[in-house]
Amino acid sequence: MNWSEDMDEPIPENPSPEGVGDPALFPGDTGSLPFEARRVLCQLLAGPSVDAERHALLWPVLLREETAIRARLSELFLELVLDRDLRVAFVRQADTGELDTPTLLRSSPLTFIDSVLLLTLRQRLAEAEAQGQHAVVEVDELHAQLAVYEPPQGTDRAGFTRKLNAAIEKMKKNNVLQPIRGSEGRHEVSPTLKLLFSAEDVQALGAVYREHLAGQRDGVDAESEEDE
């Protein structure tokens, strides 16, 4: 499984400049998209997503220019995933079958602990949605919940803690975990995760990790840091 990485800085949301109606926005410009639509396209490619809450100025532009933006992405063998109910959108590689196409999105493999953290967050999101609530988690709570995946006999507790902290930071960087202002250590799980992991994915992944835990209890040497 691959996880798209975002650029360090978000695309700023400045107002459109004067003369935006002219498609030539700079010397040598041959593009046809309006200025703000290009900004949306850049934010989508920078990643990890565009949503109505964090990108209040870009979101309505995305809805208005959706067809044109989809066309530009298709030319790059990319697909726009847009959910109007969740009010979030992101880009992924298009399923091009047997075509030999380049891969433009940067990605990194998920470690075992990345995967179990994602599974835990996805389950929390499902539970919260069933109750009509936002999915909120605390860092200390995640450490306690994922302690069951620590290697047997606690041979390297410090190492496991470092890896779990790194996984949590990765979720923050990709906006899967969004800090709650004024509440240190508490984060909201982004609804975007629902688009990345279906209920079927959760069931399948959960079965794999239950087998892993059973193997640990039986003394089976299951290497947990192989890329998933």
Structural class computed from helices and strand pairing: alpha+beta
Question: Can you list the strand order of the major beta sheet?
Answer: 2-4-3
Q: Main beta sheet: strand number and arrangement? A: 3 strands, antiparallel
**Nearest-angstrom radius of gyration?**
20 Å
- Average residue pLDDT: 80
Strand content: 5-15%
Which regions contain 5 or more consecutive residues with pLDDT less than 50? 4-9, 220-228
User: From N to C, what is the helix and strand string?
Assistant: EHEHHEEEHEHHEEHH
Distance between the termini: 6 Å
What would a concise description of this structure say?
Helix content is 42%, strand content 13%. By secondary structure, the chain is α+β, with helices and mostly antiparallel strands. The protein is elongated, with a radius of gyration of 20 Å.
How do the helices and strands line up, and which of them pair or pack?
Layout: E1 2-4, H1 35-46, E2 50-51, H2 58-64, H3 66-74, E3 78-83, E4 88-93, E5 107-109, H4 112-130, E6 136-138, H5 139-145, H6 157-173, E7 177-179, E8 186-189, H7 192-196, H8 199-217
Antiparallel strand pairs: 1-5, 2-4, 3-4, 6-8, 7-8
Could you characterize what this model shows?
By secondary structure, this protein is an alpha+beta fold. Helices cover 42% and strands 13% of the residues. The protein contains eight helices and eight strands. The chain has helices at 35-46, 58-64, 66-74, 112-130, 139-145, 157-173, 192-196, 199-217; strands spanning 2-4, 50-51, 78-83, 88-93, 107-109, 136-138, 177-179, 186-189. The strands form three sheets. The protein has a three-stranded antiparallel β-sheet. β3 (78-83) and β4 form a beta hairpin. α1 packs across α2 (58-64) and α4 (112-130) crosses α8 (199-217).
